[in-house]
């Protein structure tokens, strides 16, 4: 698939995108595993749908996979194991254009929050054409700065 990349400074400005091909997602957990996942690997996970307004205020239905489920498969400490020193875990989401965003793992765990954060591959039932193949969608956020487009990597680290 051919996708387009915004320059890092363009994430908020909506400047023209440059062509790029993304075929796999790198998932790394400090002290855990490093995985390379393709769309077929993600398709084995439970699909989740959320309704959210995009940066233009247009409501859409996004479909994809909860970040916590993807990360758990690589050994991230979540659920009953998200305590003590593991509270210091954070996720760095990386995009094809060098853009990065950070989430605390507590923001992804239903024991801590009702917020849902997914790695979407569909919007209103259609592939994320120019901004895909994957985009992070975080429900309940007032700004969309962490709605990373063209995600290439998810890296869990522990603050020290």
What this model shows, in words?
The chain has one domain (3-158): Oxidoreductase, molybdopterin-binding domain (Sulfite Oxidase, Chain A, domain 2, Alpha-Beta Complex). The protein has helices at 39-42, 67-72; strands at 3-5, 18-20, 25-29, 34-37, 47-53, 59-66, 89-95, 100-104, 117-123, 126-127, 135-138, 151-158. It contains two helices and twelve strands. The protein has 160 residues and is mainly beta. A hairpin with a 2-residue loop joins strand 9 and strand 10.
Give me a quick take on this structure.
The chain is mainly β. It has two helices and twelve strands. The protein has a five-stranded mixed sheet with strand order 4-3-12-7-8. Strands 5, 6, 9, 10 and 11 form a five-stranded antiparallel sheet that branches. The chain has a two-stranded antiparallel sheet with strand order 1-2.
Could you outline the blueprint of secondary structure elements for this entry?
Layout lengths: L2 E3 L12 E3 L4 E5 L4 E4 L1 H4 L4 E7 L5 E8 H6 L16 E7 L4 E5 L12 E7 L2 E2 L7 E4 L12 E8 L2
Parallel strand pairs: 3-12
Antiparallel strand pairs: 1-2, 3-4, 5-6, 6-9, 7-8, 7-12, 9-10, 9-11
What percentage of the residues does DSSP assign to strands (E)?
35-45%
CATH class: Alpha Beta
Percent helix: under 10%
The N- and C-terminal alpha carbons lie at a distance of 39 Å
Radius of gyration, CA atoms, in whole angstroms: 15 Å
CATH architectural category: Alpha-Beta Complex
Highlighted features:
160 residues; mainly beta; Sulfite Oxidase, Chain A, domain 2; five-stranded mixed β-sheet; five-stranded antiparallel β-sheet; 2 helices; 12 strands; 6% helix; 39% strand
């Amino acid at each position: 698939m051919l996708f387009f990349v915004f320059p890092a400074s363009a994430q908020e400005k909506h400047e023209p995108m440059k062509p790029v091909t993304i075929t796999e997602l790198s998932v790394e957990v400090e002290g855990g595993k490093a995985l390379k996942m393709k769309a077929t690997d993600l398709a084995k996970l439970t699909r989740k749908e959320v309704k959210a307004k995009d940066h233009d205020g247009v409501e859409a239905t996004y479909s994809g996979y909860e970040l916590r489920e993807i990360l758990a498969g690589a050994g991230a400490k979540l659920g009953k194991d998200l305590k003590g020193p593991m509270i210091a875990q954070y996720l760095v989401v990386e995009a094809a254009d060098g853009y990065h965003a950070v989430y605390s793992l507590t923001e992804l765990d239903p024991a801590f929050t009702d917020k849902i954060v997914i790695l979407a591959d569909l919007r209103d039932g259609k592939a994320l054409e120019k901004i895909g193949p994957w985009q992070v969608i975080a429900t309940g956020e007032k700004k969309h700065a962490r709605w990373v487009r063209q995600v290439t990597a998810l890296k869990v680290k522990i603050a020290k």
